[in-house]
Amino acid sequence: MNIVCLDMEGVLVPEIWIAFAEASGIPELRRTTRDEPDYNKLMNFRLGILKEHGLGLKEIQDTIAKIDPLPGAKAFLDELRATTQVLILSDTFEQFAKPLMEKLAWPTIFCNTLEVAPGGEITGFRMRCQQSKLTTVKALQSIGYETIAAGDSFNDLAMIQASKAGFLFKSTEQIKKDYPNLPAYEEFGDLLRAIKAAL
């Protein structure tokens, strides 16, 4: 029994915060989990900048509405889902993910949730569980699944390393250099072949 666990941002869709940084003209918001291993620190940094600029959920959702999946992502996901079970494990939020999941034909996603004030200000965030990707992979393994994982960032490394097969996809040169034992791919076709070989 296999299940493939995929990161979302940077793997299937562009990075939401980078797109919003460009749309809002706030370069500090380009910082992602590729740059900052501590997710709580990163999110609190982001929320502080949003508050400072008077930006809320609506502005981010307006940007997300214009984001399309990476070229080839839907076809890759369609073929993978026809072959085996697939679960997207993301540190994004329900309020961000829905329009992107629609464009990918509604794959299953496990993510987190934002705390939003009535006026639309993002006041906080709730993680689904601690170390959500690793915790989920271990839980899947505890109920009889063998996991295969792929991602691009620091927060994907634990689930990749805990799986029977794990891959870096569209990762940074630094992460690839720091983890030379992890196979790294740039094209969906190559990742698909590697996953199928591991099944």
Largest sheet: 7 strands, mixed
**Going across the major beta sheet, what is the strand order?**
4-3-2-1-5-6-7
Radius of gyration: 16 Å
Shape verdict: globular
Number of strands: 7
* Overall pLDDT confidence: 96
CATH class of the domain at 2-13 and 70-112 and 128-198: Alpha Beta
Number of helices: 9
Q: What is the share of helical residues?
A: 40-55%
Please name the CATH topology of the domain at 2-13 and 70-112 and 128-198. Rossmann fold
Ranges where pLDDT stays below 50 over 5 or more residues in a row are: none
For CATH, the homologous superfamily of the domain at 2-13 and 70-112 and 128-198 is named as HAD superfamily/HAD-like
* CATH architectural designation of the domain at 2-13 and 70-112 and 128-198: 3-Layer(aba) Sandwich
Q: Percent of residues in beta strands?
A: 15-25%
Structural class: alpha/beta
CA-CA gap between termini: 9 Å
What would your notes on this structure say?
By secondary structure, the protein is α/β, with parallel strands linked by helices. It has a domain at 2-13 and 70-112 and 128-198: HAD superfamily/HAD-like (Rossmann fold, 3-Layer(aba) Sandwich), CATH 3.40.50.1000. The chain has nine helices and seven strands, in the order βααααβαββαβαβαβα. It has helices at 16-24, 39-53, 57-64, 73-83, 94-103, 132-142, 157-162, 173-178, 188-198; strands at residues 2-6, 85-93, 109-116, 122-126, 146-151, 165-169, 184-185. It has a seven-stranded mixed β-sheet, sandwiched between helices. α1 packs across α3 (57-64) and α3 (57-64) packs parallel to α5. The longest helix is centred in the N-terminal third of the chain and has 15 residues, at 39-53. It is globular and about 50 Å long.
